[in-house]
Design brief:
The protein has a two-stranded antiparallel ribbon. The model has no long low-confidence stretch (mean pLDDT 76). The longest helix is centred in the N-terminal third of the chain and has 31 residues, at 3-33. The chain is built from three helices and two strands. It has helices at residues 3-33, 39-65, 74-88, and strands at residues 72-73, 106-107.
Length: 108
């Protein structure tokens, strides 16, 4: 695949995933303002959806950055994913820390 084409595909996918994540965030804010629905359940559903989008974006990023587009550096992916999940759920502010001991593995 030409370098330009790969870069263009990466750029488009990344932008689209960011748009989806932002739309979920905006919709979650709308439900927060609405006192009629059970906001805790609705917000949890939106955050879960947002986390799925983030995990897809991270996998895409790892594949893009890898030399071989057919493999995924799973250790690097897990580190980024857990860091992002900690950020999304504000776990860092609780004082909890995660220690990952992962050997470098590429998944086909």
């Amino acid at each position: 695949m030409r370098k330009y084409a790969k870069k263009e595909i990466h750029h488009r996918i990344k932008n689209n995933l960011q748009v989806v994540s932002s739309l979920l965030d905006l919709q979650a804010e709308k439900f927060t303002e609405n006192k009629i629905c059970n906001t805790s359940k609705v917000l949890k559903a939106f955050r879960d959806s947002q986390n799925r989008v983030i995990s897809m974006a991270l996998i895409h990023e790892e594949l893009y950055e890898s030399r071989d587009i057919n493999t995924l550096n799973f250790a690097a992916y897990l580190k980024k994913l857990t860091k992002e999940l900690f950020r999304c759920y504000n776990v860092e502010t609780s004082g909890a820390h995660l220690v990952l001991e992962i050997e470098k593995k590429n998944l086909p």
